[in-house]
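Researcher: I'd like a structural prediction for the single chain below. Treat it as a standalone chain; there are no partners to consider.
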Amino acid sequence: MKLNKIGGGALLLMTALFNTSPAKAQEESEAMKKGEAAYHKMNLKEATKQFREAIRQEPTNAKAHQRLGAVLAAMEDYDTAILECKQSIKLDGKSFLPHVVLGQILANQGKVQEAMVEFQEACKLKPTSFRSHMDLGFACTHLGKVDEAIAAYKKASELNDKDASPLINLGVLLAQQGKYPQAIEAEQQAIALDKKVPESYINLGNIYAESGDTQSAVQAFKDALKIAPNHPNALSGLGWMLEKQGDYKGAIENQRKALKTVPNFSPAKRRLATALAASGDSKQAEAEFKGAIQLAPRDVTAHVEYAQFLEKQGQKQSALAEYKKALEIKPDSKIALEAMNKLEKTK
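Model: Treating it as a single chain, here is the predicted structure.
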């Protein structure tokens, strides 16, 4: 299932840059006004020039440092941007904006733990900041802090009940906890807010699939394809459900369509392998399993499903090796452990 993520570059940082009341804007220097006007037009060089001039005129202007940090981040000058954000925080410890920008920069650098601390501080300083709670939710999700992520997305949804994004992400997390009715409700609420986002329908399809409601999952994936006819996740999801319904021809067709759109889409390749195996084409199935593992060597599901295939082919030693590989990647994989133990008893 797909989460709406923290993005990168200029478009991301605009949310943090332009959050100024008209009253404050009237008190700003000419350089500050020119800087913000230039940034609105995405003229980053001119914006940088003007914000630097504002800082030259007022070295202790925390807002100018925050603005410059955001612009430099948009230009991918992350080291200098971080210094500017930290200077802004030093000058004004009550402003949440530099923490948001700094957190976004750190997240985009892969320093998610550090980013989370900044987002937490931003939320503390301004509890009504939608952006801060969204970014905190993503950081917590990335770090496996599911309960904290759910709380952040719920708060974000309360702060902006017209935006579908927090609900889309909330549904994914609730499904991870096995709370399928609540997860379904979250995705349906997201769809009610915005019917043109295919990820909502895809997430809904995945949740229905995990909960065992194959028919509803099929419909959700078909609804996604009405919006995005070549979406690989929707095509692969539909193929996955058709296989469960015994429509192997339809399953194979949809997985191949997904792979035509994205040739290195490993879930589709893995699902194509299982559909081919179910249809009786063992030779091609084995080739696809190997291809899926080559594309995603750490895909536990691929190793387990390949092992199950090998086991049915009577290749017990090879199957055992695949189960062991799955457990090397994820030692707590219940399905791999149970299958391996069962197989070892029959040896």
